[in-house]
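User: Could you walk me through two proteins back to back? I'd like the raw sequence and the structure tokens for each, with a short line separating them so I can tell where one ends and the next begins.

Assistant: Of course. Protein one, sequence then structure:
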Amino acid sequence: MNLIRTSLAAAVAAVCCASLAQAGTAGDDFQVSAEVIAACSINASDLNFGDYNPVVGTAVDGSSTISVTCTNGAAYSIGLSAGASGNVAARAMDHDTENATLSYGLFSDALREEIWGDVSDTVDGVGTGANQNVTVYGRVFASQSTALVGSYADTITATVEF
């Protein structure tokens, strides 16, 4: 009986050792890749000029903020539509009930000299991957003495191209 056990143990050991002696490894490399695309998001806050007194005849200034987040390194341009007037150089808010307008302008500089348009007069930048704030400077023009009493409004679309 001991001879059988010894023979059986020797056979098992031989099979195990033979298996271990024949074991090997194989490998292969593979690539991992991704492409970062240019992407942007935009959010614009409302611009409220408050009260305008046509009798005094002075301009009223205001500002708004456009927040843009673009992929780091992505070039972008922000444009502002002409609104209801159809002309970025002659924007006008419409009266809430009457056929009347109130002239105003949107500018890219604090001196209110550079008209902010939708095609060629855009504000350009390069994304950082973080939120970037851009100020829109507005002005209700002076000497609009024929303005009717009431509320005026216009809708501007801010667009980011990248």
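----
Protein two, same layout:
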Amino acid sequence: MPLHHRMIFRLFWRRVAAWLALSVIFWFSSKPCVAETREDFFEVLQIGTVSFTNATVTTKARDYIFLLHAGGMANVKVSELSPELKATLGYAVAVEPKPNAAAEKAKTLAKETLQKIETPQVRELERQIRSAFGPETPAAMNLSFLAARLGPAILWAIAGIMVVLHLFFSYCSFLICRKCGSEASILVWLPVLQIFPLLKAARMSSWWFLACIVPLVNVIAQIVWCVKITEARGKNILVAIGLMLPITNVFAFLYLAFSGVSVRTIMEGAV
């Protein structure tokens, strides 16, 4: 994999790790503390204009407190408490938590890591890559970047499938050449070069190879080959039409390879 793609890959995961660390740290550092669950007893508890005697605060939640008093029970919002009473009940710690030394150290380390990542050399490399690929082309479309994302196991599996498909296509071409009465040379197993034995099987000159590599002209060459190879196999013209059309061309090609030899082909070979 090219050097700049490896740098992009490492840069991406380093950023993900740094931002993930920052997110976890900020979540824990900003998470509000819950007040202590110990009970507080007051002979007289003044909240606003209401006084409670022999009051015991049994529950101290984030938004309210629950207390038992001589007259029964009451539920009071924390926002209605005075600052002094909040401090007595422990809500000052919840509102203004003490800074966590470990969390602050981790924050600083994460920020320093991000600053090291955003070096002028890395920014220049990103600029060059954007100019090379273009603003509208995502990096995932690049084959090298895609290969890095897939992993070696998947790439070997894809390569194996492609080799099997090529060998199967070559074997079908070998059968077509043999059933047309043409000698199938070693070229039938080689990519690109296998077009020469297939042209020979269709009773066409090897010079048609040049027509097959010229845009637009190659369409005409393909049509001519479909008709000629069908005639050489002694099959119906409908097979030639099937060879010209998408999807059906696969089945037509397999039919030419595995169907029996016609009497017409046998007679022509005898002659």
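The longest strand covers residues 50-60.

Let me know if you want the two compared in more detail.
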